[in-house]
């Protein structure tokens, strides 16, 4: 999975199509992500000591990673993500993620 926590993504399918937001959490084994403000669901909560009133809360639910694309803020466009090796000053190489459309390196 090429999308990580903290990445800006654009939703490319579903009811929230076109939304640009940040990934709050990633689940690589499931191939799903939680995106801020996307796929909001209502959850009925029982009263507990932490939440004595209980009630209905709204929270983000997981969406499939195939429904989002990495968003390049510099180029203002969504792009696929690739990997390449970049040479450091001391001659060693580091594996980095980059946007395939613009070639910009993603800061991790």
TrEMBL record:
<keyword id="KW-0699">rRNA-binding</keyword>
<dbReference type="InterPro" id="IPR008991">
    <property type="entry name" value="Translation_prot_SH3-like_sf"/>
</dbReference>
<dbReference type="GO" id="GO:0005840">
    <property type="term" value="C:ribosome"/>
</dbReference>
<comment type="subunit">
    <text>Part of the 50S ribosomal subunit.</text>
</comment>
<keyword id="KW-0689">Ribosomal protein</keyword>
<dbReference type="GO" id="GO:0019843">
    <property type="term" value="F:rRNA binding"/>
</dbReference>
<keyword id="KW-0694">RNA-binding</keyword>
<dbReference type="InterPro" id="IPR005824">
    <property type="entry name" value="KOW"/>
</dbReference>
<dbReference type="GO" id="GO:0006412">
    <property type="term" value="P:translation"/>
</dbReference>
<dbReference type="InterPro" id="IPR005825">
    <property type="entry name" value="Ribosomal_uL24_CS"/>
</dbReference>
<dbReference type="InterPro" id="IPR014722">
    <property type="entry name" value="Rib_uL2_dom2"/>
</dbReference>
<dbReference type="GO" id="GO:0003735">
    <property type="term" value="F:structural constituent of ribosome"/>
</dbReference>
<protein>
    <recommendedName>
        <fullName>Large ribosomal subunit protein uL24</fullName>
    </recommendedName>
</protein>
<dbReference type="InterPro" id="IPR057264">
    <property type="entry name" value="Ribosomal_uL24_C"/>
</dbReference>
<feature type="domain" description="KOW">
    <location>
        <begin position="2"/>
        <end position="29"/>
    </location>
</feature>
<dbReference type="InterPro" id="IPR041988">
    <property type="entry name" value="Ribosomal_uL24_KOW"/>
</dbReference>
<comment type="function">
    <text>One of two assembly initiator proteins, it binds directly to the 5'-end of the 23S rRNA, where it nucleates assembly of the 50S subunit.</text>
</comment>
<keyword id="KW-0687">Ribonucleoprotein</keyword>
<comment type="similarity">
    <text>Belongs to the universal ribosomal protein uL24 family.</text>
</comment>
<dbReference type="GO" id="GO:1990904">
    <property type="term" value="C:ribonucleoprotein complex"/>
</dbReference>
<dbReference type="Pfam" id="PF17136">
    <property type="entry name" value="ribosomal_L24"/>
</dbReference>
<dbReference type="InterPro" id="IPR003256">
    <property type="entry name" value="Ribosomal_uL24"/>
</dbReference>
<dbReference type="Pfam" id="PF00467">
    <property type="entry name" value="KOW"/>
</dbReference>
<comment type="function">
    <text>One of the proteins that surrounds the polypeptide exit tunnel on the outside of the subunit.</text>
</comment>
